[in-house]
Amino acid sequence: MLHEYRDVITHMKENDAANAHFLKVFDRHNELDTKIGEAEKGTIPMTDLELETLKKEKLHLKDEAYALIIKYKKEHNL
User: Would you say 72 and 78 are in contact if contact means Cβ atoms under 8 Å apart?
Assistant: First the structure.
């Protein structure tokens, strides 16, 4: 997720304990990414509606993570 911000994400994870919310968002996004991939491969059964719902949640989390990254970059002059 947001590979172009890998350095900022690493900085956020390592240097600022106040980013617990970001870490929750980041971890949930990765969890959904794995689950969606498994559903698309047929490894786990899921209806189209369930899959669509997960994809929407994942996209929402990505948008939220992006906003948190941009805010962090501005606050820390990165």
Answer: yes
